[in-house]
Design the sequence.
């Protein structure tokens, strides 16, 4: 009885670690399929890229402007105004927008919009046994379905990160204008603290966010069971798991970047 109770108590943890291992295996198979000839997924890659771009560009616009204007914009400006240092807001935006907010908003929007669509699409194909039919016909689902979505989300998140940085900074400009401050100090401290390393790290980190989202969403879709209700559960689980993976990876990546580039910790 004790053994059965303990086994039941640890079942969720065991299932979580099992899924994590299967996602890692799928990641390895995806990377191998992406670099190994042949490359039949060109049209699918372009279609998925345009599909994700069409879905994500407007939510990204609204979210980045709102985040930039609200959290690091108004809140930081209100704090800095107590010390008469509103010209330092530009330097703060390098930390807030380029390093954290832009990648996070991009990951959340891509996971919530494009990631859910990918999970629902592959989940519906799994329920209709289309994936099994492809394997019977000798078509590799990973090379033809997972790889193009993996590459498309990596590219779209990297590009949307630059998009998010630009519109996030525009939110800071709006906060400066609201406080009737000249923009010279904002841009002076922004460019004094911004660096190629910071921007490159932001883009690379966000591209890797896209790879995490793609693999998790593809895995959840391709393992969906239980009919339409199972696809719905897979979509919910995919978003949660993808964002947890993004948060964990962000911590590791940011700490590694700051440890290898200690000059980025100094605000000029």
Sequence:
């Amino acid at each position: 009885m004790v053994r059965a109770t303990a086994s039941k108590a640890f079942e969720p943890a065991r299932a979580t670690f099992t899924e994590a291992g299967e996602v890692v295996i799928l990641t390895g198979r995806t990377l191998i399929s992406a670099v190994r000839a042949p490359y039949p997924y060109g049209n699918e890659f372009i279609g998925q890229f345009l599909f994700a771009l069409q879905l994500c560009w407007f939510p990204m616009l609204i979210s980045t402007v709102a985040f930039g204007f609200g959290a690091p914009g108004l809140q930081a400006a209100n704090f800095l105004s107590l010390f008469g240092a509103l010209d330092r807001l530009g330097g703060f935006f390098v930390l807030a927008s380029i390093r954290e907010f832009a990648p996070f908003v991009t990951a959340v929007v891509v996971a919530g919009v494009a990631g859910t669509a990918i999970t629902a699409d592959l989940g519906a194909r799994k329920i209709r046994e289309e994936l099994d039919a492809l394997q019977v016909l000798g078509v590799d689902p990973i090379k033809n379905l997972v790889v193009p979505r993996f590459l498309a989300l990596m590219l779209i998140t990297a590009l949307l990160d630059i998009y998010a940085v630009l519109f996030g900074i525009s939110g800071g400009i709006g906060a400066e204008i609201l406080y009737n401050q000249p923009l010279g100090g904002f841009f002076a401290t922004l460019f004094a603290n911004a660096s190629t390393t910071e921007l490159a790290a932001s883009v690379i980190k966000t591209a890797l966010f896209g790879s995490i989202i793609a693999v998790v969403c593809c895995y959840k879709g391709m393992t969906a069971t239980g009919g339409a209700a199972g696809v719905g559960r897979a979509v919910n689980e995919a978003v949660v798991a993808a964002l947890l993976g993004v948060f964990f990876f962000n911590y590791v990546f940011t700490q590694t970047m700051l440890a290898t580039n200690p000059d980025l910790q100094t605000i000029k």
Q: What stands out?
A: Residues 46-265 form one domain. The mean pLDDT is 85.
